[in-house]
Amino acid sequence: MTSPQTWPHVFEAGGAGTPVLLLLHGTGGTEEDLLPLAARLAPGAGYLAPRGPVQEHGLNRWFRRFGEGVFDVDDVVRRADELAAFLGWAREHYGIADRPLVAVGFSNGANIALAAALLHPDAVSRVVAFSGMYPLEGRTVGADLSGTSVALFNGSSDAMAPIDSVTRLGSILESRGSEVDRNVREGGHGIHPTEVDGAAAWIASHTRKVSHD
User: Fold this and answer.
1) Pfam families recorded for this chain (predicted)?
2) Which residue in 9, 81, 165, 189 is the catalytic one?
3) Less Cβ crowding at N or C end of the chain, within 10 Å?
4) Of the residues 125, 131, 149, 158, which is catalytic?
């Protein structure tokens, strides 16, 4: 069990009124991996970047798996619960409860972000998922996801995140009321520069401050 208070992470407050990006690295990454991406996605924004709590052959991950693309779904659920608890602690600890939070994940990090959104939409309501797939195979998702928004960025020939799983993911999210923006490019696993541009525009449009006169 990962305790929120001792979870390795880095935090940058960013400018007042800006969103906070929850940066979730891929397999083998660290909390530093996606920091360069933050400035390109939302200049001046804050960020919160924890380290995946699971070890696989010495590599950091967010949850266990039985093989490539075969997830330990019980562990996915457990780790999504832990991430939601960590976010609750961080929001209070860093005083960011009133700022919009966007989970930005790559690969394994995208999958835990999606799992958290599916299971804890109150904690994670906006997700940018690069090369992610459906993380809860065999489980029924019962949560009401109205008010959540997800941007999916995938390669059409990605063997690590098969497009049929991505299609199913989008359909499940929409069936529960989520707003889903699907983006499929040619190519495989990774983050393409055009996807960064698309994600930046999506984040801006989904975190724009509404003025009240």
Assistant:
1) Abhydrolase_2 (PF02230)
2) 189
3) C
4) 158
pLDDT tens digits for range 70-85 = 999 999 999 999 999 9
- Please say if 158 is a catalytic residue: yes
Q: Check residue 213 and give its pLDDT.
A: 35
CB 135 within 8 A of CB 168: no
Domain residue ranges of the chain, discontinuous segments joined by +: 7-205
pLDDT band at residue 210 under the 50/70/90 scheme: very low
Residues 6+ apart with CB under 8 A from 63: 54, 71, 72, 75, 76, 78, 79, 80, 108, 111, 112, 115
Residue 34 gets the label, from left (phi > 0), alpha (psi -120 to 50) or beta, of alpha
Q: Are 142 and 117 in contact (CB under 8 A)?
A: no
The catalytic residue among 107, 131, 149, 178 is: 107
Whole-structure pTM over 0.70, yes or no?
Answer: yes
Q: HSE on the CB side for 125, CA within 13 Å? A: 14
Query: Is residue 131 among the annotated active site residues?
Result: no
Give the three-state DSSP class for 136: coil
Q: Which CATH number, 3.40.50.300, 3.40.50.1820, 3.90.1180.10, 3.40.50.720, labels domain 7-205?
A: 3.40.50.1820
Give bridge partners of residue 60 from the DSSP assignment.
55
**Residue found by looking up tokens 């929120």 in the block:** 4
